[in-house]
Amino acid sequence: MATGQDRRARRTRPPLIQALNRLLLNRRREKIRVADIIARADAARAEADDEFADVGEAHMEALARPFAILADAAAGQGDPERLTALLDHFWENRQRARATLSGRTGDKAIRLLGDMVAARLQRRQIALVLPLRLAALQLAYAAIGPLRAWVGGEASCRSATLAQSICRCGDELVESLAATPVTLVPRARAMGG
């Protein structure tokens, strides 16, 4: 049974995350304060203080939803169409994406993605040749590396081509990290480059 605090968290957290996402499209994360998020969400200060210790924590939680699509791809369960839509969003907001994927924030983002990949591998109960954390980070870095370079302008390609490549790489890497053969879930691979 949910407590009053659990119900309040389910009610206040989504508007706070949405408010942060809107603020991140227009401001650098370093310039956003918890008070700005609260004002944008029209939330009570006490409820918001219970939700997040700081803007960085809120930012990582906000990343969890879009990173779920990237984590699926890294863990060999990607959907190229959904990943293409996410990459289009990152491209449209590439200045913010570059800031999110670099420096200390980028380090936190890669740890978040690694945690998400590890959870997916655990659910699939794949026996790995490496410790779970190491395998998850290898997969996370393989997915985020080309994304960083792409939004950073180091090389260009269509978002659909990059999505297809990240999904295929996730499939192949999971297979190579498995101690026994992995049965991949068939999916459409019709997206061209």
Structure keywords:
about 190 residues; about 70% helix; about 0% strand; mainly alpha; disordered C terminus
Structure description:
With 193 residues, the protein is mainly alpha-helical. Helix content is 71%, strand content 0%. The protein has nine helices and no strands. The chain has helices at residues 4-24, 34-41, 45-51, 55-74, 80-92, 94-100, 103-124, 132-151, 159-177. Helix 7 packs across helix 8. It is globular. The termini are far apart. Mean pLDDT is 81; it is low at 1-12 and 188-193.
How would you summarize this macromolecular structure in one to three sentences?
The chain is mainly α. The chain is built from nine helices and no strands. The protein has helices at 4-24, 34-41, 45-51, 55-74, 80-92, 94-100, 103-124, 132-151, 159-177.
- What radius of gyration results from the CA coordinates? 18 Å
- Beta-sheet strand percentage? under 5%
By DSSP, the count of extended strands is 0
Report the total helices.
9
Task: Lay out the secondary structure.
Blueprint lengths: L3 H21 L9 H8 L3 H7 L3 H20 L5 H13 L1 H7 L2 H22 L7 H20 L7 H19 L16
Helix pairs in contact: 1-2, 1-3, 1-4, 4-5, 4-7, 4-8, 4-9, 5-6, 5-9, 7-8, 8-9
